[in-house]
Specification:
- 47% of the residues lie in helices and 12% in strands.
- It contains 23 helices and 17 strands.
- Helix 19 packs antiparallel against helix 20 and helix 21 runs antiparallel to helix 22.
- This is 6-hydroxymethylpterin diphosphokinase MptE-like domain-containing protein.
Length: 643
Amino acid sequence: MNNFFEKNLQALDKVDPILVAKMRLVTPNQFFEVYADEDPANVNIIDKRHNKPLYTSKPVEETLKKIEAMTEFSYYPYLYFYGAGNGIFYKLLLGNESLKRVLVIEPDPEILFVALHFVDFSKEISERRIIFVLSIDLSAPRAMSYIGYQDSPLYCKLYDLHLFTPYYNAYAEDYLRVNKLFLRAIEHSIISIGNDSRDALLGLEHHVKNLPDMLQGPHVVELVRKSANTDTAIIVSTGPSLYKQLPLLKEIAPYVTLLCIDASFPILHAHGIKPDIVLSLERVKESAKFYQETPLEAQEGVVFAITSIVHEDLKKAITRGIKQFSMRPFGYTKYFDLSPYGYLGIGMSAANMAYELAVHSRFKRCVFIGQDLAFGEDGTSHSKGAVYGEEEIKPSTLGDRVLVEKYGGEGEVETTTIWKMFLNFFERDIAETPYKIEVINCTEGGARIHGTIEMPFIELAQSLDRSQAKQPITLELPTPKESEENLTKARQKILDLLEFGHTKKAEVERVFLGVVGMTEELERLNKENRLEEIDFAAIGKLLEEIDNIKDFFHEPQFLQIFLDAVQSYIVHQELEIAKIVVKFTTEDIYKKAKQIDWLYAHKYWLFSLAGGMNAVLEVVKRGAAEWMEIPKHFAEGEDKDLV
């Protein structure tokens, strides 16, 4: 028995050493008594505090009944449970090879301690097929990491947190908290995917178009190396709370590094404050106005850290200071293999990007101001002086208000789905920061950002060392030779992309047309009451070809080039297709019906994939044509709409 425990802890130590430390601190039989007989599977655990057993009848019989009840979930690749019990159920459950991962949340360390003594999970733990988590350790960022694991987001509509036995009803409040964290993670995952491919296509076109400018500017590595001209970074956002902080910000500006999001740039200039770095993340044309509305002299001595996907109007509006492009960590940016220019902007806002920069630059302290992520008490969405007005975004007038915990922790404030997503990124990034950094929220309003220290701005200002003013940030440019070599590399990458993309698209179109022909045949046979003539061998061959197309999504080059543009509609279809995948069938007639369902589900899937691939190839050609020659066999447009 002890041998199992040590084997389990050795396996756990490689994936969760903190849990191992907690298991070693458990006092045996402190709150629970273990009862076992000659049958090693017949192990009951009694809660001595309430004289309540985990299993109300014979444990082995309850376990077998529970396994039988799980038959309908036989094809589910991911399952979630609240309660570890004696562990034997999970060992049996993992005998199902279709099951990729089981996540078990246990509220009491002593129960998990017992389970790890009675069952050898070492192989499954090492393979990450079973994850044990103490409920006290489950945070929002951690829940997001579990929901986002490999292809588990495709099955998130099937999520259910199974209560292991009625005993765990005693932890109802904690169960609801855990369930809420997972539901929030699922919401974040789906919203992050988006539902409109146009943003990704626009970003791709801008990236390709901006490559020559990016490759003539300073590297991201240079930006990261030089950014920390003080110990303290202040990220200046444009929430309603910013305006009240401006006088104090002006006073301390010479002694801190100001990382200013683009929307705050005009406001700071209007109050005589010069930021060190201004960050722009978005691909939209409207962001250019933040620079167009600010006098050119305001740009002097400022580093403009902008992403490679920004609109050309924004790029042209910055004519002074230092313009530094970085690539966001998208597949299509990584495809170009220009790592000195990447990667910043994994989050969804310029402020998220600013925090990433602060972390990469190893500031000792990072401070938020104006980071409300919520409406002000007067209903305003932005600071006084904001270019697009204080009420650019309106609070909801319907019953679907989005509420989050208030700064200070007393009550809730109204936010938006998008701001809530920004908040999620902050909390995840703060939790995953790889070194000790003091993260302080001096917004004094808006939403609480978990993981930060809430502090009045005046208190922060009083703690600063003002003995020496900062030096301006200067960045070195790459040599002309390096820029030209990188541009030549980018040019070849575009030609390779077009060749590869056309070949793959033709294969998708071929299979699509085969599926169309088969579905038309099925509809004809159904209309003529001749369903017995269905050629299931031909359907099986088509399903194999569909699987071969789906294997494209395991090819790194395909993923890099196409995933960002097609994932919004492909993933949303996969969420529905997953319901077909997990449908439990034993009789032949139902298996055949499942095959037909699968075929029909992939008719539009293939159509939309081919259309998305076509759109990617077209925007790459359009963006690249501004600075390189596109070979005629690509430029003349072999791509035709599918009909």
